[in-house]
Amino acid sequence: MNKDLRVKIVEMIKRSGEGHIPSSFSILDIIEHLYGNVLKFKKDEPKWVDRDYFILSKGHGCAALYVVLEKYGVLKEKHLLEYGNTEGLLAGHPDSTKVPGIEASTGSLGHGFPMAVGLALGLKILKKPNRVFVLLGDGECHEGTVWEAANVANNLRLGNICAIIDWNGSAAQLMPRDDLINKWKSFGWTTNLIEGHNTESLNKSFKNLKLSLEDTPKVFVAKTIKGKGVSFVEGHGMWHHKIPNDDEMVKIIKELKS
Amino acid sequence: MKKLRKEFADTMLEVGLLDPKLIVMVGDISHGILKPYAKACPKRYYNVGICEPTIVSMAAGLNHMGLIPVVHTIAPFITERSYEQIKLGFGYQKLDLNLISVGGSFDYSKLGCSHHCYTDVSLISHLNRGVVIIPGSPIEFNKIFKEIYKNNSINYFRLPEKPHNVEFQSKDIIFGKGIKVKEGKDITISVIGSQLANAVIAAEELEKINISTEILYFHTIKPFDGKILRQSVMKTKRLITVEELSAHDGLFNLCLKASIGIDGIQVEQMAVKDFLHSYGSYEDLCEKAGLTSENIKKNALKILKK
Fold first, then answer.
1. Architecture of domain B176-304
2. Pick from B48, B49, B54: which is nearest to A145 by CB?
3. Which residue from A minimizes the CA distance to B27?
4. What residues does B25 pair with on adjacent strands?
5. ipTM value for the complex
6. What is the SS3 string spanning A201-240?
């Protein structure tokens, strides 16, 4: 669990007064693992034609993506400092027309995933080996377009796409009879349960991942904790879209730096 | 006259053979007539399924890869149902798309209001990069599609079921320009789509009683040729708009906007006011909506106070 990046996230969101801290903490370790170990990309050439594509379909967790892009040199520190400002590139949802390394402007749930399926189809048509990774929320899986696209990807045998579901329990708050694993399996995706904050699990899962142009699509259902890393932020409640006050900020930083 | 849908299929084949980037996706319609394209352009035709919003979002992914997507299905499902996908996928992200619909307005006259659509033109027009074409004859579609399909815009082609049956020469069809079908001095009839047929009949009837009409026909709704409309209305000072679109936004509004500042003009709007809770032929529903040559004539006489 990367505590330093969590501090950056919370500082950025506190400074601007906008953002989703728990949702970002929930996916941070997965995104950091992807950029550090899995994705092909060039920090100075975000449109490099041979890159792998990563779409954050649950766009409200974008603070996690921003700090990872900054860690790997795609974004600069000044971009994080300008988060939420009129002169800045970054804010509460990512804008692909502005931000280097952002493939899709997401925010409205259920849009990024079908676009990722379109990317995978495009790569298949062009017979290119680039891979597509797309991260969805479990709550986002309430959206009908997720299942439309899951159905289509299976039907077209898009073996070059890997979805990752941030299974932090948000969906189960509303729909407790929630069997994500069997749902994805029943849509024809090769489905595996992984631990979204566990380096060993992430390493093993992505190392064994084989993507190709003609196969079943793959999905990792990643067990995660919303707000992971700060005890009183973890879980589902008022912290979803809350900005910490000064006292809370001190406590968050103290816990993250302990 | 050839059906617009057949022309669509023929044009896809023509363009697809020349442009390897053209990808056609349909929502389980027109697969029969698209077989020649599918055969000639393997791996570039997809009958994706009955999931219109997803097809539109997938098109964003294809365009992000540098391909040129064409999405084809029934108007209400491709526009009203999928509007957020069009707005965010292509408007917000500045990507390029070709949407080609059939079943606009009440073309599916016997299928009921679930298959009717009056707001599609307005919806796409709200997007800054939106382009709206209603080709009322095959040559209009063929010529304009080839001209703009890779123009870095969100192109919406709404194919009417019934061609207007007025023959145009290729040189008369210019993207973004209205066509003066008939020169006149007493009253301007501004018309789109299949309703051109009614406008022509009404003009002939009015000529018999010495009323001279000028017919302006618009295949391009956005960008709208306000100049030709304004010149005509400055001359006639009388305007009737005829459209199968919503009365709350459409050709009438465009014409009024183009007429701002012209003193003393009289106008009549002929459009669709609400759901047509009715079945029947296309002509039956035109009658129900008041979109007939007789009503164009009546409105002309009303304006002329005759």
1. 3-Layer(aba) Sandwich (3.40)
2. B54
3. A152
4. B46, B71
5. 0.96
6. HHHHHHHCCCCCCCCCCEEEEEECCCCCCCCCCCCCCHHH
B177 burial (CB, 10 Å; 0-12 / 13-18 / 19+) is middle
What gap in Å lies between CA B199 and CA A67, rounded to an integer?
62
For residue B162 the two structure tokens come to: 């019934």
Instruction: Give contacts of B54 with chain A, Cβ < 8 Å.
Output: 114, 117, 145, 148-149, 152
- pLDDT surpassing 90 at residue A174: no
Q: What's the CA gap between B88 and B85, in Å, rounded?
A: 5
CA distance B35 to chain A (A): 18
Q: How many structural domains is chain A composed of?
A: 1
CB-based burial of residue A192 (10 Å sphere; 0-12 exposed, 13-18 middle, 19+ buried)? middle
C-alpha dihedral sign at B223, B228, B232, B233 = positive
User: Domain spans of chain B?
Assistant: 4-158, 176-304
Q: Calculate the CA B37 to chain-centre distance.
A: 24
Phi-psi region of B18 (alpha: psi -120 to 50; beta: other; left: phi over 0): alpha
Q: Are B243 and B252 in contact (CB under 8 A)?
A: yes
pLDDT digits (tens, 9 = 90+) for B83-119: 999 999 999 999 999 999 999 999 999 999 999 999 9
Identify the CATH number of the domain in which residue A179 sits.
3.40.50.970
Q: How confident is the model at residue A172 (pLDDT cuts 50, 70, 90)?
A: confident
* Nearest chain B residue to A97, by CA: B93
Within 10 Å of residue A60's Cβ, how many Cβ atoms?
A: 20
End-to-end Cα separation, chain B, in angstroms: 36
CB A117 within 8 A of CB A153: yes
pLDDT at B151: 95
Q: What angle do CA A55, A59, A62 make, to 5 degrees?
A: 90
Smallest Cα–Cα separation from B271: which of B106, B125, B161, B124? B106
**Superfamily of structural domain B4-158:** Thiamin diphosphate (ThDP)-binding fold, Pyr/PP domains (3.40.50.970)
Distance from the Cα of B51 to chain A's closest Cα (Å) equals 6
Which residues form the domain of A172? 3-257
CB contact under 8 A, A148 and B53: yes
Please indicate whether the domains covering B4-158 and B176-304 agree at the CATH topology level.
Answer: yes
* Alpha-carbon dihedral angle through residues A247, A252, A253, A258, given to the nearest 10 degrees: 120
A→B interface, C-beta within 8 Å: 95-97, 103-105, 107-108, 111, 114-123, 125-126, 144-145, 148-149, 151-152, 155-156
Instruction: Kindly compute the dihedral angle of the four CA atoms of residues A201, A206, A210, A215, in this order, to the nearest 10 degrees.
Output: 80
Subunit contact B49:A115, Cβ cutoff 8 A: no
CA distance B80 to B120: 6
